Amino acid sequence: MSTDILDRPVADADQEQAFVTLTVADQLCGVPVLGVRDILGEQTITRIPLSPEEIAGSLNLRGRIVTAIDLRRRLHLPSAPTGTKRMSVVAEQGGELYALLVDSVAEVMTLKSSAFERNPPTLSPTWATYSTGIYRLENRLLVVLDVAKLLAFAEKG
Amino acid sequence: MDDLLADFLTETNENLADLDVALVKLERTPDDTDTLSLIFRLVHTIKGTCGFLGLPRLERVAHAAENVLGQVRDGMLVVTPDTVTLVLTALDRIKAILAGLAGTEAEPVGDDTALIQQLNAMAEGHAPAQPPPSAAVAEPEPEPATEAVAEEPPEHDAPPRQPNAPATPAAATSEVVPANQTIRVTVDVLEDLMTLVSELVLTRNQLLQLARTQDNTAFTVPLQRLSHITSDLQEGVMKTRMQPIGNAWNKLPRLVRDLARDLGKKIQLTMLGADTELDRQVLELIKDPLTHMVRNSGDHGLESPAERRAAGKPETGRITLNAYHEGGHIVIEIADDGRGLPLDKIRAKMVAGGFATEAEIANLSDAQVHRFIFRAGLSTATDVSSVSGRGVGMDVVKTNIEKIGGAIDLKSVPGQGTTFTIKIPLTLAIVSALIVEAGKERFAIPQISVVELVRARNATGRNSTDQQDGSESVIERIDGTPVLRLRDRLLPLVALNDLLRLGPADTEAQSAYIVVAQVGANMLGIIVDRVFDTEEIVVKPVAPILRHITMFSGNTILGDGSVIMILDPNGIARATDVGASAESRGNVAGKAEQPHALDQTTSEKTAMLLFRAGGEQRMAVPLGLVARLEDIERDRIEYSAGAKVTQYRGKLMPLVPLSSELRTDTPRQPVLVFTDRDRSMGLMVDEIVDVVEDRLHIELSSARPGLLGTAVIAGHATDVIDTGYWLTEAWQDWFRGTADPAAEKTGSRVLVVDDDDFFRQLVAPTLTAQGYRITTARNAAEALRLRDAGVMFDAIVSDIEMPDMDGLAFAQTVRADGPWQTLPMIALSGRAEPRDIEAGRDAGFTDYVAKFQREALVSSLRDCLAEPIGA
């Protein structure tokens, strides 16, 4: 069975995973589609005073309060220019909803495991912490984000 | 668990609760046949069901209790307190067995023979003299329990669940079986319904908000209808969660009865408004606090019958519970007509417990003192009784009530009693909140903690003429700290902008709004930029990542769909007290709350004598320097060579006026007496104000001779006098003349290490006057630099509490190696507990002297230096 799969990398049985692709500071990233609850356009976000830096605020998603996380700040990237319209990817963690603020969200891509590689050891510690690996696409690279880790504030504060 | 067993447990527990109430009622009105029948039936039902379910132990106890009641019903036995007590004991046993049953699904093992024998003896008509407790008092009875069962007529062995078995009118039966049109629904279902309805209310609010912006759309009418239905639905669902507060009270008659019996008091419990309904979640949460408070009222509040007689009151003390609705809240009053709160005891406790100094207490109103009972560790019960005083105090009650967004206050009149008032929200799910704006952000403040709103102007200058232009209040500032005069009181203010770091306030705005919030015993004004209206909001917990921000109690979605944070006034009060110097706001309470934190972050406290001389300005001198306070009759002031003197202890003591503007119209002259060896001098002042403990930190140094500078002491700017100056005013050779001959001979060199300017200023001249040659160092590092530079001393006097390297570390370093290794070292510290002294010795100090014990320091130095000289 296993040799079978290896022999036929394109077959249905191959390890394929669908990702929501997004960009943050010009870097293409992906989030496993099964972990995504919603994609939101520009939202009104309420600032939360005294909150950790990466918390952008909270927003109302159909009657539920969602904590918005600024992915740029979470990844120690420069802040987005003011006035930029940003989108959010909503994910759930421990029964709570979180919105990851990203620069833009593109299509859903189904990627084969043959194109997957572990993080290069030289990757910066921040990215290495929040990424599970890299997909080689035809003309660019896609970083797979570890949503659980991005939202695990208790450990990473 | 077996469904049948579960149902049995639920039902039996309900029956038992009813029984408690009914039995106490029966005790008061033994002739009430209806109550008696009810009791009999309830016990009978329990017994019957037990037999049916095969629970022999329960059945035997219930049966024996039923026998007694049967005799009472048949008129063979008269109801006495002993009868009731015994039956109640049996019921307690049943409860204990039921508890075991609920835990293990099997009857717990135990021996009820003694209890059953007592019950049987009672049923036989021999009233047992011994107390009912379950101790195995095996009074040999001729008939064992089994026989008692056997001789019981079959009437009582009727089949289980036959409510009509006793021959009572049918009318009474309907009481036992209340409305049978009820179903049991698990609480979870109701909770889910409530959540859904809350969401629906929010959605409705959003729709209404949208509709307001548009005129006459096709949606207007259906929307109105939706709105009404939603409101009705909300009300309906709320009702399912509502329970009469009487449910939380039904244990109280029994409790009060037992309490009265234990304490030998006569107590009458009156319960008003028992049918006032409130959310069951809230009900559960206030049950224990209420029980505790009623117990307190009975135990501490009410006097013994003898005391009451002596006070001219009826022997029977009254505890009154009253519940009613008021503006979306439930108000519960627990009143007793007892002795009132002991003000003196509370004040003494406050001082003893370090909650406040005497000076601070003097400024407190009685009501403020009363509220100190809500402080942890402040129980006024002098002895721990079995009833209360178990360390669970009113602070726990207060915390529990505040947890559900409630508030507690009290009124107490000596000799007339104490009334506690609890105000709690009807429900926890939906609260009314005031929407405010600060720094362009909106926040919700729960209405329950808002006392009033004040519109105030920002004071532009110090000129007070502004105040004349009308009723508008002005925010005044003390060194940047905003305060507001509100009806003869100074209200501490906190700007939400600063607190939440929202950026600078809108400086163009000439006025601001102040939300006056009640936080426990204190009032706090929260400055906001704008105030909107109030809204019903659904409190939602904040995300776990934000839980550490104590200033928010939750968040919510407003009618317009935006998310806003709900402010927690308690959290705000805590944050401001910890974050800033509490006494600068005159906030005694805040300071007391964090005594340890403050002690660690600031220098130690010093006892200071406060007085006035030549004006209203408060002045202070470290108490340790003052030998005595005297009050000399004015005609005993004499003159010697033009200077004032008085005869004091057989000698002439020079008197020095601290000010040229001293009052002379009083018959007596207060004098601070300073003594050194056989010399004394008196410093004349106008009035001794108080002795307080506070940190001595001189903020402004003074150019005026005789004053060291100004410090904030007990919340007031206070001039600290330079005692050295005044001593030389009296005796120009004060210091020289008393110099220690030994020191003078040797001219011993002493290094004084202290981070505090004041202490250095004080210690240095004192020791110089003794003939020592003094070098001072501001910290350990500076001292060690002297050592490394090769400077040599004969002794070192060092403070313990210093920044960076403290005195202990300094001593260890000195003792480790170097030329100073063997020098005598004297520790100076505000803390002179045995533990501290030991720590000092361990670190290498030769001696340990409390700060301001000038004599002790001088003699310690003499001893330390004498040794090597003598050797």
CATH architecture descriptor name of the largest domain in chain B: 2-Layer Sandwich
Distance between the termini of chain B: 87 Å
Task: Report the biggest beta sheet of chain A as strand number plus sense, adding barrel if it closes.
Answer: 6 strands, mixed
Strand sequence of the main sheet of chain A, in spatial order?
8-1-2-11-10-9
Radius of gyration of chain A from CA coordinates? 17 Å
Do you know the CATH architecture of chain A? Beta Barrel
The general outline of chain B is: globular
Greatest contact pair? Answer: A-B, 21 and 25 residues
Task: Outline the structure in words.
The complex is a heterodimer of chains A (157) and B (871). With 157 residues, chain A is of the alpha+beta class. Chain A has a single domain, classed as OB fold (Dihydrolipoamide Acetyltransferase, E2P) (Beta Barrel). Chain A has helices at 2-7, 71-74, 125-130, 147-151, 153-156, and strands at residues 16-24, 27-32, 36-40, 55-61, 64-70, 87-93, 96-102, 104-112, 116-117, 131-136, 141-145. Residues 1-13 of chain A have low confidence and may be disordered. Chain B is of the alpha/beta class. Chain B has six domains: 3-176, Four Helix Bundle (Hemerythrin (Met), subunit A) (Up-down Bundle); 187-240, Helix Hairpins (Orthogonal Bundle), CATH 1.10.287; 244-425, Histidine kinase-like ATPase, C-terminal domain (Heat Shock Protein 90, 2-Layer Sandwich), CATH 3.30.565; 433-593, OB fold (Dihydrolipoamide Acetyltransferase, E2P) (Beta Barrel), CATH 2.40.50; 602-730, OB fold (Dihydrolipoamide Acetyltransferase, E2P), CATH 2.40.50; 739-870, Response regulator (Rossmann fold, 3-Layer(aba) Sandwich), CATH 3.40.50.2300. The chains are: A alpha+beta (157), B alpha/beta (871). The A-B interface holds A 44, 46-52, 55, 57-60, 63, 65, 67, 94, 96, 98, 153-154 and B 199, 202-203, 439, 441-442, 500-502, 540, 543-546, 549, 551-552, 555-557, 561-565.
